Amino acid sequence: MRNILITIEYDGKNYVGWQMQNNGISVEEKVKTAIEKLVKEEVKLYGSGRTDSGVHALGQAASFYTNSNISADKLPYGINSFLPEDIRVIKAEEKEEDFHARYSAKGKEYVYLIYNRSIMNPIYKGRASHVFYKLDLDKMKRASKALIGVHDFAGFMGSGSDVKSTVREIYDIDITKNKDLIKIKISGSGFLYNMVRIIVASLIDIGRGRFDENRIEEILETKQRSMANVTAPAVGLYLNKVFY
Known about the structure:
Belongs to the tRNA pseudouridine synthase TruA family. The chain is built from five helices and ten strands; from the N terminus they run βαββαβββαβββααβ.
């Protein structure tokens, strides 16, 4: 039996998220069904992790076992023929028998897009979060450096999450701007529920002057969720890459 890893891109606005749920259509359901139609057998699809409703992906990863002899380079085309246009498998590769898309992952990279102008650009509607306040990128960049390294990120975790540890490592965070589009790229060993979106919301408040630059450090020290801002909208978040 072969173990296949696929890389997936999707526009998340029409889905309840990656994981199968009873309250709507998920990306996982669509991909699993497409694979089964192609290989003509039932498969168990193992995703690298969940993405919430409305969150997009440029590099979601999932693995499955199959008896099919379809070559890896042809699998994306076959799977895509059964998928809607807002989901695409862009790569497939054969992995070792014990490889697992979730448990073999070494880390992830997310991108958050902010359209920073008084009037939203309709081209980016549904693909970037609109912030009409003028943001000071230099303040945001300086504040973000406190996030790098191993920390207890309890203050940046959304409610309703049950985890053994809230300690994570952030490898890097990069904030850039091209005209009115701000890109926040953050990579790390793993992320708590809504962690990236809460970090982004706090950085936005620093950029608009609502919070001081040392607010990130204060949240890390106190571990109090109430010290951070609301959660930034899902619409601007992309799972960019999974590291193996």
